[in-house]
Design brief:
With 353 residues, the protein is an alpha+beta fold. The chain has seven helices and 18 strands. Strands 1, 2, 3, 4, 5, 6, 7, 8 and 18 form a nine-stranded mixed beta sheet that branches. Strands 9, 10, 11, 12, 13, 14, 15, 16 and 17 form a nine-stranded mixed beta sheet that branches. The radius of gyration is 21 Å and the shape is globular. It binds pyridoxal-5'-phosphate.
């Protein structure tokens, strides 16, 4: 399918690359495509970034039928655009679509849309240390109808945002607490889908944590509130006694591309990685025995985020003297270098544009 281009008259000024923050600036263009029950996905268009027209009755505004993705583009030393494992994101986009009763989108169409949008907004890819161009594809129900049913029309859009480091703290270890009241997802729910509702469910706990001086919460399972699921909007890893553990995918945990990549890289380096159900009690016990060596979160936005303190009620666990651990640092270094084309990409994860 040919993508129609609507050009803008004037380009926007670019933000200062040393002060981008996360998700505050958007590029000159965006991608938009419509779905109608009778016609399927039609009208792929690249047009100037700007407000969109939807009905106040658009179903997404009422019942939250939407999904999104997040991946990054980098410019390498040869001025070539690089994407990290985009097919993983596109595959997950469609898995989320299926879960939310949204029609799937052809994988090549999605990659083509990302590619064409990146080409036209290439000069927005920042090059300062730690920066990248965040790509946000998303789909939402656009049907003007407040009856409860799957929507008959959707929009698929892609917007781009030049970003700096995710955390203001930089690569300093974050302080988190174990959330014991609220849960983000439950068995049989939508935890595995990258959908707005999971975020809506999490922002209350997240904002309370911020107020108390923590940067994230450690989520427990929604049924027994015993087993570790994720940290904030990241997957979580524990290095205990020279082995690495991460919660197994159980339907309420998001299947992170960074998680998947980190598991592979750890195995490459020679670590034993076990995906299993991990109770908070086990973590407390391993800390007491002095075996809890490193804790870190993984996700596209922050890549790897070391955890320095975990609070469980009034009990404080300090990890690795509150500094980033060796393996955490090594993974961050390796992964960011693979993404930017600075070391060999053994697994062929990179897609060049
Ligand atoms: C997106 C996301 C992650 C991280 O996934 P990546 O593919 O590594 O970016 C983890 N947890 C939640 C809840 C997420 O939405």
């Amino acid at each position: 399918m040919e993508i129609k281009l609507i050009e803008r008259k004037e380009k926007k000024p670019k933000p200062n690359q040393n002060n981008l923050g996360f998700g505050q600036y958007f590029t000159d263009y965006m991608f938009e495509m419509d779905y109608y029950l009778e016609k399927g996905w039609i009208n792929p268009t690249i047009k100037p970034y700007g407000p969109i027209n939807i009905e106040p009755s658009a179903m997404v505004l009422h019942y939250g039928q939407s999904v999104f993705e997040g991946l990054k583009a980098y410019l390498d030393e040869n001025n070539q655009i690089r994407l990290f494992r985009p097919y993983k994101n596109i595959e997950r986009l469609n898995k989320s679509n299926v879960r939310m009763c949204i029609p799937e989108i052809d994988e090549n169409m999605v990659l083509n849309a990302i590619t064409e949008l990146l080409k036209i907004d290439k000069e927005w890819i920042p090059i300062a240390e730690g920066t990248s161009l965040y790509i946000r594809p998303f789909v939402f129900a656009s049907d003007g109808n407040v009856g409860v049913r799957p929507s008959y029309c959707y929009k698929f859009m892609i917007i781009l945002s030049p970003v700096g480091a995710f955390y203001q703290e930089g690569f300093n270890p974050i302080k988190i607490y174990v959330e014991q009241s609220y849960v983000r997802a439950v068995r049989g729910g939508i935890g595995e889908a990258k959908t707005a509702g999971n975020y809506a469910a999490s922002i209350m706990a997240q904002s309370l944590a911020k107020k108390k001086g923590f940067s994230q919460v450690l989520w427990l399972d929604g049924v027994e509130q015993k087993y570790i699921e994720e940290v904030g909007t990241m997957n979580v890893f524990f290095k205990i006694n020279n082995e690495v553990f991460t919660p197994e995918l159980n339907g309420s945990i998001l299947d992170g591309v960074t998680r998947n990549s980190v598991i592979q890289l750890l195995k490459d380096i020679g670590y034993k990685v076990t995906e299993k159900r991990i109770s908070i009690e086990e973590i407390i016990q391993s800390q007491k025995k002095g075996e809890l060596e490193e804790v870190f979160g993984t996700g596209t936005a922050a890549v790897i985020s070391p955890v320095g303190e975990i609070w469980f009620g009034d009990e404080k666990m300090v990890i690795n003297d509150n500094s980033a651990g060796k393996v955490t640092l090594r993974l961050y270094d390796l992964l960011t270098k693979i993404q930017r084309g600075k070391v060999e990409d053994k697994h062929n994860w990179t897609v060049k544009i």
